[in-house]
Amino acid sequence: MEKRVIFKGWMLPALLLLPQIVITAVFFFYPAGQAIWQSMFVPDPFGLKTQFVGLGNFEYLLGDPFYRASFVTTAIFSSLVTLVSMGVALYLAILADRLIKGSGTYRTLLIWPYAVAPAVAGVLWMFMFNTRVGVASWYLGLLGYDWNHVLNEAEAMGLVVVASSWGRISYNFLFFLAGLQAIPRSVIEAAAIDGAKFWTRFRTIVWPLLSPTTFFLLVVNVVYAFFETFGVIHTITAGGPQQATTILVYKVYSDGFVSQDLGSSAAQSVILLLLVGILTVIQFKFIERRVHY
Amino acid sequence: MKIKTLNLALAVSMAWGTAASAQTEIQWWHAFTGRLGELLDAQVAQFNASQTDYVVVASNKGNYSEALNAGIAAFRAGEQPHLLQVFEVGTATMMAATGAVKPVFEVMEESGLPFDPNEYIPAVTGYYTTSEGQMLSYPYNSSTQVLYVNRDKLTEAGIDPDVDLSTWEAWDAVLTQLKDAGVTCPYTTSWQSWVHLESFSAYHDLPFATKDNGFGGLDTELVFNGPTQIAHIEQLGKWAQEGKFIYNGRRNEAGANFRGGECALFTESSAGYAGVKAEAKFAFDIRHLPYWDSVEAAPQNTIIGGASLWVMEGHSAEEYKGVASFLNFLASPEVQAKWHQDTGYLPITNAAGELTEQQGFYAANPGTEIAGLQMTRNTPTANSKGLRLGSFDQIRTIIDEELEGVWSGQKTADVALNSAVERGNQLLRRFEQANR
Q1: Is there a domain that residue B380 lies in?
Q2: Contact: A257, B434; criterion CB under 8 Å
Q3: Domain containing A73: what range?
Q4: Which terminus in chain A has less CB density within 10 A, N or C?
């Protein structure tokens, strides 16, 4: 049974909802509507003349093999970022959870990278792995490995994934640690007395009880990988080499603001909007069912 | 008495205030920071001090792409500056924007100030001039590609530092000798598309695109996948595989490697001179860009890069007069010559070049005259006047991507160039559609 609070009349609820609705309308519906409208035109950059092309922009985009490849790149990139940032965070959270002494210090240190803005993080990693002056690439060179993410597609992808995941690990760590600490000790202790080893306890008790946190982080991290990693990619690879790290959001930027093709850029935002909508529906319809609250 | 003095002071300061606001303000948005930004500000201060009618206000709006975007966004909001600095690849975008830009020749004509297009160096202004010879934008900073040679590196490798490097035919033997002597970076380049395809085509009098490289119309198509260009890229790809050509990045990343003394030979903008001179701890010299001797038309002339100033529409006649007098000030031989000598950018008038010569600058700084000579050695042809292509910034990115495929050995030169042409043509058709 769900509890419902019943308001009498509609004035008060409407009034209470109004600020939220206004904000959503101004900052979401209006720009989204504009994007849909613009996606049907091919304008010149200065807005002096424009031509109606209907679905022409979408046709042009979907006929472009590089745009189609960008979907695959985005899928690989966001899966890797989500997996790496959540996996490492969970591992660290389990370790920190078991600590008795000094856990505060570890936690503080682990949370620090979250304060670094994506673009700044990008620049830090770019300098470390700079093919000529980077510290990391110099050590790799000593080991006989010729690091060159400027030309090597796999290395470029690896670098932007690591740089994007780095700051995110802190955020996920916080949530995982809180989630772990919310699990009643008594349940785990009871299982331990029954003879369950660590791994069994984790699989049968901790992981299911942690699932609301994991689900929340999954949604948040996918959205992060889709949209907020722009700064990292822009500073490290600018989408290269050969568009190996051009994710959908980066392409919206480079087509719209570098080559001033606003029609194509608007059409891409509309596709992105649909895609995120579909992803969210999938997540809530299918994955949430497996979550135990 | 005291109050009276105070009132007087107030009245005077107010009068000053109105006098200041009576000056017509000219807004100039640019993309220069660091040393170049300081030199630009010095020019503005000199102009503002030289007369009382106008005051130029220069503001930095980020890098070239960002400044262009800021200008476009401002125009859409009706807040555009009078002058906007736009890099050479943005030329077609600005040109197509009839109603947003006011051609420089028109601004000069209407101002009634003296303006003679013949005083300008055609190889420089040609890039920004219509086929009828009308100047559309003012070439503020232009440079061209030259070869920088680390003489010490050559000597170390047992090569005569004056060895002939004027033709690409001579290069293989020199690069092999450097490589065999253990030099880790025999040759590197900055701006690969600009040096090895754009200027390369002009230098060998080959078209980069149809319709006179885009000067003749928006229905232009890329044709830089000709046999000479393919052969050249193939040779570079071979050197890259053999470790004789080291690729360092799309822009001027390679400059650090040359200035640090790692690389023996380096093709780069003539505007890189100041940096090399300041940082290089080795003997270096500047030479003409090499060409393939087997191509009969070579060497024609190289083409420029850099940026020009566009006058934006929507301001008053009085303000345009201010713009015209500022441009006239920039073009005066003294200001031009100083700019040329301080920055390594090309002089845009013949008078400025001659003045620099008279001042003994070329004699004191050997090599600085090469860029100018290389630009003016022949009358520019339809293939070497410049390039006017829509979405050119993105076309360059495509070329970068494809060339990287060649350097890493994933693609052959012909596959890469054919693909670059095909992808670039799609963008040109988009641009044509948007500006129909």
Answers
A1: no
A2: no
A3: 55-290
A4: N
Q: Is residue A36 part of a domain?
A: no
Q: Is residue B272 part of a domain?
A: yes
**Contact between chains at A49 and B248 (C-beta distance less than 8 A):** no
Residue B379: other Cβ atoms inside 10 A: 12
Which residue type occupies A168?
R
Do B27 and B111 belong to one domain?
Answer: yes
**Amino acid at residue number A258:** V
HSE (side-chain half, CA atoms, 13 Å) at A58:
13
Report the gap between the CA of A263 and the closest CA in chain B (Å).
Answer: 9
Burial degree of B371 (CB within 10 A; 0-12, 13-18, 19+): buried
Tell me the whole-structure pTM to 2 decimals: 0.82
Q: Which amino acid is at A210?
A: L
Does the beta carbon of A154 lie under 8 angstroms from any beta carbon of chain B? no
- Residue-wise pLDDT for B89-104, tens only, equals 899 989 888 899 999 9
Q: Confidence class of residue B19 from pLDDT cuts 50, 70 and 90? A: very low
- Burial state string for B13-33 with b = 16 or more CB within 10 A and e = fewer than 16: eeeeeeeeeeebebbbbbbbe
Q: What is the DSSP letter of B126?
A: G
Instruction: Name the stretches of chain A with pLDDT < 70.
Output: 1-5, 7, 100, 290, 292-293
pLDDT range class, residue B20, cuts 50, 70, 90: very low
Instruction: Please give the DSSP secondary-structure letter assigned to residue B120.
Output: B
Residues of B with CB under 8 A from a CB of A: 65, 69, 72, 75-76, 93, 96-100, 247-250, 253, 256-257, 391, 393-394, 397, 400-402, 404-405, 407-408, 423, 426-427, 430-431, 433-436
Q: From the CA atom positions of chain B, what is the Rg in Å? A: 24
Residue A16 domain-assigned? Answer: no
CB B209 within 8 A of CB B432: no
- Shortest distance, CA A140 to any CA of chain B (angstroms): 17
Q: How far apart are the first and last CA of chain A?
A: 15
CB atoms within 10 A of CB B8: 10
In a domain, A117, yes or no: yes
Within this chain, do residues B62 and B187 fall inside the same structural domain, yes or no? Answer: no
- Per the structure, the count of domains in chain B is 2
Other CB atoms closer than 10 Å to residue B61's CB: what's the count? 18
Q: Across the interface, which of A241, A257, A259 has its CB nearest the CB of B401?
A: A241
Asked if the model's pLDDT at residue B2 lies above 60, the reply is: no
Residue B16 scores a pLDDT above 50: no
Same-domain pairing of B188 and B298: yes
3-state secondary structure of B146: strand
We report the CATH number of the domain holding residue B32 as: 3.40.190.10
Q: Which helix (H) or strand (E) holds B54?
A: strand B54-60
Test A260 with B72 for CB contact under 8 angstroms: yes
Please indicate, yes or no, if residue B381 is contained in any of the structural domains. no
Q: Does A105 map to a domain?
A: yes
Give the number of A-B residue pairs with CB atoms closer than 8 Å: 82
Determine the structural domain holding residue B287 and report its residue range.
145-302+390-434
Residues B270 and B406 occupy one common structural domain: yes
Query: Could you tell me if B207 and B85 lie in one domain?
Result: no
Q: Is the domain of B342 the same as that of B428?
A: no
The helix (H) or strand (E) run that includes residue B24 is strand B24-30
Domain match, B138 and B106 both: yes
Say if the Cβ atoms of B434 and A51 lie within 8 Å.
yes
Same structural domain for residues B270 and B357? no
pLDDT at B17: 45
The number of distinct structural domains making up chain A is 1
What would the 3-class secondary structure string for A35-88 be? HHHHCCEEECCCCCCEEECCCHHHHHHHCCHHHHHHHHHHHHHHHHHHHHHHHH
Q: Is residue B252 part of a domain?
A: yes
